[in-house]
## 1
Amino acid sequence: MKRMAAAGGFAWTDAELEPIRPAVERLLDALDRLESLPLEDLEPTTQYRVL
Amino acid sequence: MADLVWTSMADLGRMIATKEVSPVEVVRAHLDRIATLDAGLRAFITVCADAALQAARAAEADLMAGKVAGPLHGVPWAPKDLYSTKGVRTTGGSKILADSVPARDATVVARLAGAGAIVLGKLNMHEFAYGPEGLNAHYGDARNPWDSSVHRVTGGSSSGSGAAVAAGLAPGSLGSDTGGSIRIPASLCGITGLKPTYGRVSRAGVLPLAWSMDHVGPMTRTARDSALMLGAIAGYDPADPTTSVLPVPDYTMALTGDVKGVRVGLLRAHFTDVAAPEVRSAVETAARQLEQAGAIVDEVNLTHVAHVGPASTAIVASEALAYHAAWMRVRAQDYQPDVRERLRMGAFISGAQYLRAQQLRALVRSEIDSALVKRDVLLAPATPIPAPALGERETTLGDGKSDVRAALIRLTRPFNYSGHPAGSAPCGFTAGGLPMGFQLVGRPFDEATVLRVIDAYQRLTDWHTRRPPVA
C-alpha cells in the first residue's frame, strides 16, 4: 500500500495506512465482483446529459 | 412574534409582501433564536448578524418603494458552509479553509439574493462533506434537536442545515448531497429535503466532494418551501457545464394536493425490507395513506442496486482524492481523522476500477428508468434507522448487522449514482420520539411530481409540523 500511495505522490507511512487496510481490502474485493456483471457493452456514464 | 421562527418561507414571503411583518422583524427573530440556542446545537459556523440586518433593512426599503423581488423577498435562509459567499468565509467545515473568503457568491447564492432572500449565516457540516453522520472536529458536532437527553447525530453531511431548520433557527437552507447529505439529515431531523436531478441546479461556487455525484438542493420544513427555493436556484448556468438548458417550471404550480392516479412504486428489496421495523412500518403506512388518497401503489425491486455500494465508493473516493490531492500531500494532519482515512482510500482505486464503476452506473440508471416507465415515483425509507447516538458504531438492519455509516447512506446513495431526483420528508416518529423519513424518487427533471406527492402527503399528515423538544 505504501508503494502504491507513493506512486500517486503520497508519502504516507505504513502506520498511517494500516488503519484503512481492512476497508481497502473489502472495497477491492467488492470491486472485483463487478467484473462478473454484463458491463462490456456499456459506455461509462457520469451524468444525465439531457440537453 | 416568537412564531415567526416557525412560519414557513412561503408564509413569511406573503406576510412581508403584504406588510403584515417587516423583514427586519423576521431576521431579528431568527438571530435572537440563534443567539439563544446555537451554543447547544452548533448548527452555525458563522453568523452574519450585521449583514443580515442590513440586508433586511434594504429589503424593507425596497418594499416601501414598491419593489418586490419575488416570493422570497426579505425571507431569511442559511447555506451549508461549502457555498461561496462573497466576503464571508467559506470553510467547508475544515481547518484548511478556516480563513478562506471568496471573492464572489456561488451561482445559487447569487440567485437567491436576486430573489430577495437574506443569508443569516453559514451552517455546520461534516468536514468537506465527506461523512453521513455530520461530525466536525474543528467547529463541534451539530446536535440533533429531537433528543435533549442524549447527543444524537443530525446526519450529514449537511448537519447544520438539518439542525437549524428543525429547531427554527432558519426556515430554509441549501445543503449538498453526494450520497444522501440532504436527505439523511432531513430524515434524522424531521424536515423536508430535495436532491434535484443531476444537472438541474448549478454547482458553480460550491466546494466539491465528488463532481459526478454532487447535487445541490433545498432543505426546508415543507414541500412548498422546497418548491420555492428550487424555483429560484434551478436552471442553466454557463459556469457549470453540467447544467441542463431544460426550462424551469413553476414548481409551486404542481402542488395541487391531488395524487389521484399517481403511480407509486414501493421499493422492497434493498430498501424498505432492510429498514428497522419502526421505519418500515412508517413507510408502509405512508404508502397506504397515499393509496387512500387516490394514488396507485405497487411494489418494485431493483436488483442491480446491490452493487451500488462499492461502485459509488470507488467513484467518490477517486474524485474526492483528486480534488484534495495537493492538500493531502502536505496538510494531511489538518483533516479530521475519519475524513483523512476516507480520502486515503482513493489512492488504491485504479483507473480501470473507476471506469467499471461508471459502466455499472449506466446499468443502474437504466434499471431505475425502467421502473419509472410505468410509475411516476418510487417510495422508500430515506434512512433505514432513526438518528443514532454520537459514537454509535453498529446497528441492525433487516438483513443483518451493519456499520452505522454504511446504514445511513445505503438507501440514498443509489440515486446520487443514478442522478434521479429524490425528496425526503418526515413520515412518523419512533416510540422514543425520533423522526423517521421517507424518500420519493422521480423521473429525471421531474422534481415537480416528487414535490407534488410530498406536498399532498403533508396535507394528509402533521409530522412536518411537529417541533423538537429543544425548541
Note: Chain B has a mean pLDDT of 97.
## 2
Amino acid sequence: MVSHVSPYLTVGGVVLAGMLLFVAAMLVRLLLAPHAPTAAKLRTYECGVDPVGEGWAQTNVRYFLYAFLYVIFAVDAVYLFPWATVIRTPALGLASLIEMGIFLGVLLVGLAHAARRGLLRWI
Amino acid sequence: MTVDTRPATVALPMPRLGPGNDNTLRPIKVVLNWGRRYSLWVFNFGLACCAIEFIAASMARHDFIRLGVIPFAPGPRQADLMIVSGTVSDKMAPVIRRLYDQMPEPKYVISFGSCSNSGGPYWDSYCVTKGVDQLIPVDVYVPGCPPRPEALLQGIVRLQQKIASETLSTKAIRAKYAGSRRAEAGEVTRGLLTKPAVTGRPTDGGLS
C-alpha cells in the first residue's frame, strides 16, 4: 500500500507526541509530588560531609608531569610504529627519515626539559 | 579559614503535597501507594558486617528486586528508602542525618541489625550511637546479629504493608517538618564523654 502521508508529517507527529508526553509527565509531577524543601536538602551533596568551597575549583596539577612523560614516550611510539612499515619504500624512505628526525628532535627537547626539571630522578 | 556554606538566605516555601494528591479520591491514593511500595529505590547505608547480609539479600538467591526494591540509588536525592545496616558511630551520625535530610519526600528507613537498632553488642561503647532512631525516624526494625537476608525480605514486606496503608497529606508533612526545616546535621554530634565516677568499688583496679 502506498502511503499518501508525507514522511515529514509522520516525523512532526512523533515530535508532537513526544512533547505532549513530556508536558503531561511534568504536569502530573506538579499535581502529585510532595514538595518539602529544607536547608539540608538544598545543600550541595557531598557524600554527607560539609561541602567545601564553591562550584569552581582548581585541581592539583601535579599529575601533568605524568601526562608530559606519557606524551614523550607513548605518543612517540604510536607514530614510530607506522613509520617503521614505510621506511623501506623508496618513495617515502629518505623524506620520512628526515621528518622523523625532526619529530624526535622536538621530543628530545621535551625530554631534556623533563630531565632539567628533575622528573627523571628516581625519587 | 572556615567558609560558612550554609544557604541561610534561601527562601523555604512551606512543605506541601501536590494539589492532586492532597485529600484526593481513594482509588488515586491506592494507585499511588501501589506504585510507591513496588518501586523503592534504596540507598544502602552499609556501615559494618550487616551490609554483607544486605548485599546477599540483593543478589540472585534472595533477590529483593523481585519485591520492587531497586538497589544502589546514585545518591540520596534519587532514593526512597534508606537501609541502615551496621554499627552507627557517633562520628558517622551527622552524615546519616544529612543524607536522610537530602532524600525527597516521602522517605522510609529500615534499621537492619542489632547495632543500628540499639547499638547491639557495642551498647556501652564510648563512640557508638545507641540506635539509628536517635538520629532519624525508623519505619521498620529488623532484629538479628546479623539478621539473615530472609529477615530483611520480611522487613521490606512489612514496610510495603505500611506504605499501602498510609495516607499522605500536607498537614502531616508540615507537622513532620515543624520547627526543623533549618536544622543542621551537626546538631546530632555528641561531645567527648568523661569516664564515669566509680562508686562503691575499689579504685585500684579491683583485681587484686
Note: The first strand of chain B starts at residue 40 and ends at 46.
